[in-house]
C-alpha cells in the first residue's frame, strides 16, 4: 500500500493561529456526544481524535458534517483534508472545531495509526487567565479517550450550530482574549474581536413613529467572517469620526442582536453588533493578528448585463460624465432626496449609468475623471442596466490600489479616445438630447407605471397656461407639499394629510407650459423647478401677486417666452376619457449657455448622418 504523508505539526500550527496552506490528518478515534434532551430532534454530535503523525488532539464536527459520520464516510483511521478548522476552549479543554473537510482515503484501507503521535502540551492553554486552571491531566495515548461526560453534556447544550461555539480565544500582545467573528453569539462571554473595517457607510438620518435620529454603520472582517456594527444617535456622531476604512480595531462590550438580513450588506453573520455606552473601541496599530486585507470581487460592465436584478456587486470604473444634482420627492416618506447620475466606464470599452443618493450625490465633485470604487453596488434594470449606490453600499473616490492605477493609465492612453458603448438605454438617466419627433414615433414604448421614462429635450417655452393659477397654497410642514384649504369659520388653513391646522401657508409653483423644438411640441408640468425659469421663488411671487394682482404673473411669464432650456422630463402614459395621452413632469431645468454641451450635442448629431459620396 502506498504511504500517505500527513501534514506534520499542523495541529500545533492551528492552535497557534497559523494554519498551513494544506492540511492532511488522520482520524484515530470517534466518539458520539448524545443529545442532553430526550425530546431533542437535532442530530447527535461527534468528537474526533485527529493526528498529524506528531501530535494528536480532540476536535468537534459541526452539525452539517455529522451526516458524513452516520453514513460511514468518516471512519476510524481515515485520512481527511481540512478545508476549515478553528481552535476553541470548552470547559477548560483546548479543542479544534472542524467546519469543512474532504475524505481522501477510507480507514479500512489503512487500519492503523500513522506515526507515533503524542499529546500536545497544554502550556499555552494553562497560561491563559480566561481558561480554567483545573485541567492538570491529559490522555497519554490516542486510544485513551476520556469520557468527559460533564464536558460532553455542556458542549451539546452550547453547540447547536457553528455560530454558537463559545469562548474561542487567540493570544494577542495587547489583548489577552481575541475571539474570531465567526463564533460570536449571545452566549459568548467576555469576547473581544480584532478586525479590519472593510465597509464604512455614511451617517444618515432616520425617522419613524417612535421618533427620529441618525445612524452610522460599518463592517468588520477578520479571517473567519464579516459582521455589521451599528451606532445610533450620539454614538453615531462619536464613532463616525473614530472609524476609518481599511484600519484595524479592537472592539468589545457591544450589544449583540439577530441580524436583519435585508440591511446586512456583505455580512452573512447570524448576528450584528450595536454600540452602547460600555463599548470599547481601540485602533490596532500593528497587524499582529494577521488580519487579511480588504478583498473585492470586481465585476466588469459586460458581466453586469448578465446578472439578475438587485444583485450586489463590487465595481471599479472611471467617471467619464457627471450629471446635475436633482432633488426628488420620495413618495413613500414624503421627503426630498438629492440624486445625481454619473457615467462609469471600464476596460471592456463600455459605460454604465450609476445613481448616487443623499450625501454621496451632494458631495460628488463635477470636475475631472476620478476612479470610482463601489462596494456592494446594486444592479438595477432601470434604463435596461444600471448601478445604484444604496444604503448598504460604500463609495471610495481615487482609491490607492494597483487596479485603480491600471484603469487610470488605460483611460489616459486608450479609453479617452474610443467610442464607449453604453449598456444603459438612456445615458445618465436621460441626458442624451432627444427631439419630440423621436418620442412621438415611439409613443407606444412609453410606460404607464409611476416610474415612467426620463428624457432630456433642448426646447423653448412657447406658451404658459394662464387660465388657472400658476401656484397653490401648501402645507408648511417640512416634507409635506399637500394643498391646504382655508376654513372660513376659523380662518385657519387645514392639511388633510398632516391632520393639522395652520395660521399660514406656503406658495408652491405648479405651472403648465408648452415647450417645442424644430420637430414638434408637448405640454409639461413644472413644480419647484419653475423657480429656475422665472428667477423668483413661489413665496416671493405669491406676495407680489397679493399686492399687485395677476399682471405681475403675466409679466414674469411673458419675459420667459421663447427662451431655450434643457428640460429633463419624466414621461408616462395616462388614460383620460378612454384616450391615451402622454404626461410630462419636469425633473430639472438648466440654461443652454453651456457651449461645450451644445457642441457635443451637435457633434453627435453630425456623426449620426451617413454621408453619401
Q: Main beta sheet, described?
A: 8 strands, mixed
Helix content: 10-25%
Radius of gyration: 33 Å
Terminal CA distance: 82 Å
Average pLDDT: 78
Number of helices: 13
% residues in beta strands: 35-45%
- Unreliable sequence segments: 36-41, 121-171, 427-431
Structural class: alpha+beta
> What overall form do the CA principal axes indicate?
elongated
How many β-strands, per DSSP? 33
Describe this structure as you would to a colleague.
With 613 residues, this protein is an alpha+beta fold. It has 13 helices and 33 strands. Strands 7, 8, 9, 10, 11, 12, 13 and 14 form an eight-stranded mixed β-sheet that branches. Strands 23, 24, 30, 31, 32 and 33 form a six-stranded mixed β-sheet that branches. Strands 1-2-3-5-4 form a five-stranded mixed beta barrel. A hairpin with a 4-residue loop joins strand 27 (493-495) and strand 28 (500-502). It is elongated, with a radius of gyration of 33 Å.
Concise overview:
With 613 residues, this protein is an alpha+beta fold. Helix content is 16%, strand content 37%.
List strands and helices in order, with pairings:
Layout lengths: L9 H6 L8 E10 L11 E7 L3 E7 L4 H5 L8 E12 L2 E13 L12 E2 L3 H4 L22 H10 L33 E9 L3 E5 L2 E11 L4 E7 H8 L7 E5 L2 E4 L12 E4 L5 E4 L17 H4 L7 E11 L3 E5 L4 E11 L4 E8 H6 L7 E10 L5 E3 L5 E4 L4 H12 L7 E2 L10 E2 L1 H6 L11 E12 L6 E4 L10 E2 L6 E3 L4 E3 L3 E4 L1 E7 L2 E7 L3 H5 L3 H11 L2 H9 L4 E13 L2 E13 L3 H13 L6
Parallel strand pairs: 3-5, 3-6, 10-13, 18-20, 18-22, 23-24
Antiparallel strand pairs: 1-2, 1-4, 2-3, 4-5, 7-9, 7-11, 8-9, 9-10, 11-14, 12-13, 15-17, 15-19, 16-17, 17-18, 19-20, 19-21, 24-30, 24-32, 25-29, 26-27, 27-28, 30-31, 32-33
